[in-house]
């Protein structure tokens, strides 16, 4: 069958007519396949949700009583039939529980990557390429300028800064789901065994990662009670917090706070300068340009469909390689949830 008859974009998201389900819909629908737990992909309000057990657990923590959907957990590689359409999930390497959705019907196979990356991440399963007729790829960092450095070096850079500036609290902005836990794990791998302080907004998800088998080491709450002389104990320490908290009154409670930010966007110096970031940590949970193009070449699909991000650049690259490609122009997704 033609790929567009199996899966195509609609205002609510990618829709599969023969299966009557959506992938990462941006509006409430009857049945949704969710690739991962970030809020721009995993919204509440659907009739039924199919996802990995980890993604369902993340959604339950984030939405609480709002998450009333019928839930169908499936493990990586487990094959199910949805109204006659074959569906299975494979690791995307983005965050814990993240998956690519593989949809197959009448001899046509489409793989939707969701958000993904190729480099090793101690907090989640490694990306697995799947041969297919159509690859639907994200393109958050779909420009050649975005080539992320080795992650271990970025973790060592942060540790070295705490040693160079032992009088300053290092406030590191990191998204609460995935980025914060990955940053912590990479710091542990580089030998940082001191307690890491976390903003209260991080606690539930860090606790969940621990429950799901991802050890984070000693964590302590980043709280300072006014008038109790606790400020100095944060000198030279690492404090992980939501990016927005760095510019808040909360941040000013710490001793000479040094603002840092863990993001792929820190490759662009102007972005770091605009946010007042002194220590840019180039660490992304999305594929960089080389990972995007290498994935297309490895999967070798008959068609490449590109969504949310720098769509036109990746489409143009594919066309120059002699590949059939198009941009889907889906709306409702953020560049890096930051």
Automatic annotation (TrEMBL):
InterPro entries: MBL (IPR050698), Metallo-B-lactamas (IPR001279), RibonucZ/Hydroxyglut_hydro (IPR036866), Xnuc_lig_assoc (IPR026360). Pfam families: Lactamase_B (PF00753). Coiled coil: none annotated. The keyword Hydrolase applies. Keywords: Exonuclease, Hydrolase, Ligase, Nuclease. It comes from the Bacteria. Residues 28-127 form the Metallo-beta-lactamase domain. Its EC number is 3.1.-.-. One of its GO terms (molecular function) is ligase activity. PANTHER family: BLL1145 PROTEIN, CLEAVAGE AND POLYADENYLATION SPECIFICITY FACTOR FAMILY MEMBER. This is Ligase-associated DNA damage response exonuclease. It comes from Parvularcula mediterranea.
